[in-house]
Specification:
Length: 148
């Protein structure tokens, strides 16, 4: 099965999340391609069985330019029959805007017909050991669903 991971990362936190998830899925036997959003085309999801997007939320829910461009591309696709999973980081001090871009991307995937395979993961700032365990467990559950 093919997995396309696209990530946006300013501080490296979300790149770390994408790398952990990529390693987990590769270990589970998946063919994984991971790309920085600045170099990605949403159409790459059309060739994938599982579409993963990892992003941060900047400030009070601001979607950065490169994520906004990708978001607009994504909204033009038909991903019916594809599975998706979104995750990202944020800062809880922004309260209602905490990980808002993760929510926006989840809605976009649903709007283009993709099927959500796991609930979004939202991590405050950097990946902790507890967060790493959650990423590992989620990857294992997704792998079991797709391989089962």
């Amino acid at each position: 099965m093919k997995v396309q991971i696209v990530y946006a990362s300013m501080t490296g936190n979300d790149e770390d999340m994408a790398e952990i998830f990529s390693d987990d899925l590769t270990d589970a036997g998946f063919e994984v391609e991971s790309t920085d959003v600045s170099f990605a085309d949403a159409a790459a999801y059309e060739a994938a069985d599982l579409c993963v997007f990892v992003t941060y939320t900047y400030g009070e829910g601001v979607m950065t330019d490169e994520v906004a461009d990708f978001y607009e591309q994504l909204k033009e696709l038909d991903l019916t029959g594809k599975h998706f999973f979104v995750m990202g980081s944020g800062d809880k001090s922004y309260k209602d805007h905490y990980c808002e871009t993760v929510d926006d991307m989840e809605k976009a995937f649903l709007a283009v017909g993709a099927q959500e395979i796991a609930s979004p993961i939202k991590i405050e700032n950097a990946v902790s050991d507890e967060d790493m365990d959650l990423l590992d467990q989620t990857a294992a559950k997704i792998a079991a669903q797709l391989n089962g």
